[in-house]
Amino acid sequence: TLRKLHLAPPFLLDDYIPRYHLLSSIDASKKRSAAYAHLRNCNLCPRLCGVNRYERTGTCLIGADTVKVNTIAPHFGEEPCIQGHNGSGAVFFSGCNLRCVFCQNHDIAHQRNGQDLTPEELGEWYIKLQDVGRVHNINLITPEVRSYLVWELLI
Fold first, then answer.
1. What residues pair up with 74 in beta bridges, in sequence order?
2. In what order do the strands lie in the sheet with 138-141?
């Protein structure tokens, strides 16, 4: 039997346009520049390490050009309204710098295991999750110190 899921009805999404699609190319360029400006005196997380990530890594051990991704796959461990029928397109980033003692993803997030991906390569994985995995969404796990690269992919 097919389980009941509480997904948004399609008619609610027919006319939906993400806000970033409404940006002019000039506004998008300004936002991209503002996001990358944070890397010269890094303040993208509560540690506020202030390093120039173009020259070296901070507490997160993440530089400016690539991200360390541990796992990319459809994930079925979320609430049904998030995972849908085909799973949530989970992207587990490595190198979380918060080091929370109660972290449920410690083995993935706290260590620097995985592959280094450029923004273009990460974007290709998003498309694979959508086209091959038929996932209902892209779920970014511990993306905070990589927010500038996530923004780059959206616009």
1. 89
2. 115-117, 67-75, 88-93, 138-141
- Following DSSP, what letter does each residue of 41-101 receive, concatenated? G--SSTT-----TTTS--TT---SS-EEEEEEEEE--S-HHHHTTT-EEEEEES--SS--T
Bridge partner list, 72? 91
Tens digits of residue pLDDT in 80-113: 777 777 888 889 888 787 888 888 888 887 777 8
Q: How far apart are alpha carbons 125 and 129 in whole angstroms?
A: 6
- The amino acid sitting at 99 is R
Which residue is it, tokens 């300004």?
30
Long-range contacts of residues 23-26, Cβ cutoff 8 Å, at least 24 apart = 23/155
As given in the structure block, the two tokens for residue 34 are 């503002």
- Contact indicator for 39, 149 with CB cutoff of 8 Å: no
Helices 25-37 and 147-154, packing angle to 10 deg: 170
pTM of the shown model: 0.75
Alpha carbon of residue 138 to chain centroid? 8
Q: 30 by DSSP, 3-state: which? A: helix
Distances (CA, A) of 55 to 34, 35, 46: 18, 17, 20
Amino acid at 145: V
**What is the distance, to the nearest Å, from the Cα of residue 101 to the centroid of all Cα atoms in its chain?**
22
